[in-house]
Amino acid sequence: MRLSFLGAAGTVTGSRHFLVAGGKRILVDCGLFQGLKVLRLRNREALTFDSSTLDAVVLTHAHLDHSGFLPVLVKAGFSGPIYCTGPTADLVPILLRDSGRIQEEDARYANRKGFSRHDPALPLYTEADARAVTPLLRVVPVGEPVELDGFRLTFRVAGHILGAASALLETEDGSVLFSGDLGRPDDLLIPPPDPPPAADTVVMESTYGGRDHPVLYPAAALALVLRRTARRGGVLMIPSFAVGRAQLMLYALWKIFSEGRAPRVPVFLNSPMAIDVTDLYEKYAAFHRLSTEECRSAFSVAEYVESVEESRALNGRAGPMVIIAGAGMLTGGRILHHIRQFAPHPRNTLLLTGFQAEGTRGAALQRGEPTLRVHGRSVPIRAEVATMDGLSAHADQSELLDWLAALPAPPRNVFLVHGEPAQSEALRLAARERLGMDLRVAEHRQTVTLR
């Protein structure tokens, strides 16, 4: 049994774990590298294996850093099954189509404006490439061991986002448990992770392995920022991930207005992808905490902005208002056009509500950079920049240790992935001190033999 860490080792993006076991070649997650340019360039590197010889892909969840490289894999020759949960099977096509469309739009814009170093600028993949992934998706029920071609797969609830799962793979050579991204026990929308099953080897995320999240009451914290911005007559811009974070913001705003915590102002969900995702919450009520009626009430708090023309029209409106738009780390999407329009004015607010990977515009804002490079030009940031810490959908150090401690028996190996080096190392030391467990931090392109 061999395991290769082809992504999310030493960084939080690009999750790709290549397992050779029981005569099968399985890729667990197939994500995009995001953030620093040196990481993004890995998306252009040649694959280290022949994708046509892969037997299967197993997806823990739909986020692009776990699924966003699938169109490249398929274009390179992969035609096997992609196993995932029901919500993930519905979410992945939405996210991939949007990713391909944004890449095409960004490439066209760069070529038109001439600010790319490449001539011509080309997308990593197109919307058509993304659509080719959908026929390969295969739904596996959560909580039920399923015998597949040469291995057994069991998904367990991981929390984090709609449909996210941990994946236990069992073959004649042994068992490997991939935690996926683990959620939090007190998330407003998503239930907590299931206790982990026993496994010979565990591959575990460590995004926040070195810290505990502060206690946060999302509606109260958001109400403070909204009241402050509304008093200035400003625009509250919320860069948001389409899956999970956008819905949480809508739910929090609904509670704020229902309870009179802030003046009711117009709210716009300016993300076709987030709109499509929001509609899935009614379909998959068993995967979250809200009733069908709560979904309908909470998510109707916003006006949905579908077309490009409607999006542009928002830039001509005066505040106070709230605009929720992608992308969450300011790596692309419609939020960038609103930043160009509203960020130079001090009456407005940019609210960061999630992890900002190093090298992204969001991380630059958190560092206090006075300008952002957007579409080839420098945009002065005079708007208030606020951060809601503690809103992460990732488990913190204590919660990760609790999940590890719940293993029925000590595994032979535990490898830490999906974390910056300092976070992974901190979790390794904490696990040794508190649990007496020896964990190893995975290295990029490292291959280990599991015995």
Could you give the distance between the termini?
Answer: 7 Å
Q: Which term fits the overall shape? A: globular
CATH architecture of the largest domain: 4-Layer Sandwich
Instruction: Give the full name of the CATH homologous superfamily of the largest domain.
Output: Ribonuclease Z/Hydroxyacylglutathione hydrolase-like
Sequence of strands across the biggest β-sheet: 6-5-4-3-2-1-22
How many structural domains are formed by the residues?
2
Instruction: Report the mean per-residue pLDDT as an integer.
Output: 94
CATH fold descriptor of the largest domain = Metallo-beta-lactamase, Chain A
Query: Strand percentage, roughly?
Result: 15-25%
Quick recap:
This protein is 31% helix and 21% strand.
Would you write up a description of this structure?
This protein has 451 residues and is an alpha/beta fold. It folds into 2 domains: 2-211 and 393-449, Ribonuclease Z/Hydroxyacylglutathione hydrolase-like (Metallo-beta-lactamase, Chain A); 218-387, Rossmann fold. It has helices at 37-40, 64-67, 70-75, 86-113, 127-131, 218-231, 245-258, 272-283, 292-299, 308-314, 335-342, 361-366, 397-405, 421-435, and strands at 2-7, 16-21, 24-30, 56-58, 82-84, 137-139, 146-147, 152-157, 165-171, 174-178, 201-205, 235-239, 267-270, 303-304, 321-325, 349-352, 371-374, 377-380, 384-387, 413-417, 440-441, 446-449. A hairpin with a 2-residue loop joins strand 9 (165-171) and strand 10 (174-178). The radius of gyration is 21 Å and the shape is globular.
